[in-house]
Amino acid sequence: MLERPLAIAALAALLISGDAPAAPGGGCAAPMPSWRTPGYGWHNAIRNYVRIDKSGALTWNRMPIDVATLREYLHIVRTMNPVPATVLTIDPGTDCETVRRIRLEIERALDCAHSGLCGEGPAAADWNASPYRGGAQKLEKRADALGEPE
Q1: Long-range contact set of residues 74-82: C-beta below 8 Å, sequence gap at least 24
Q2: Mind listing the pLDDT tens digit for each residue in 19-36?
Q3: Residue pLDDT, tens place only, 17-76
Q4: Residue 122 CB neighbour total at 10 angstroms
Q5: At CA 116, angle to CA 111 and CA 122, rounded to 5?
């Protein structure tokens, strides 16, 4: 009789211990309070995407960059009219100190608390809260299939 409850408890423990979905911010602390998250509805906004992979490498709109180039691009972005939104995507397992540094670079350069043009979350298609979302997802898949530029 005791075997059945133990088997059920063991099964429940096994199910609970499975891989959890990736947490926002790559498992690091939540985005800065003034930053937007997917579903905000920037469907007409121009957006730039900064990504940190788990090795700490950066990309800007899928192009590899370093921190100095990120600073340069952010300086240019803040002079544009209209100023595009900047979205940070963080791969799960990324070092939290790296995440903190890049968030601060973006926050300082773009004054996110006042501009409201900074966001953090997953892939580009998740930010397209509009009838064009399906089209954006198709473009993302096509770009992924083409691979990194040489």
Answers
A1: 74/105, 74/106, 74/109, 74/110, 75/109, 77/48, 77/109, 77/110, 78/109, 78/110, 78/111, 82/46
A2: 333 445 666 767 777 776
A3: 333 334 456 667 677 777 766 666 555 578 899 999 999 999 999 999 999 999 999 999
A4: 15
A5: 105
Whether residue 86 contacts residue 47, with contact meaning beta carbons closer than 8 Å, is answered with yes
Question: Distances from the Cα of 81 to the Cαs of 3, 77, 85, in angstroms?
Answer: 69, 9, 11
CA–CA separation, 96 and 19 (whole Å): 20
Across the chain, which distance is largest between two alpha carbons, in Å?
73
Question: 56 exposed, middle or buried (CB, 10 Å; 0-12, 13-18, 19+)?
Answer: middle
* 110 token code pair: 């773009």
Strands 63-65 and 85-90: unpaired
Alpha helix stretches (DSSP H) within the chain: 3-16, 67-77, 96-110, 112-115, 133-146
Query: Measured on CA atoms in the order 25, 49, 69, 145, is the torsion positive or negative?
Result: positive
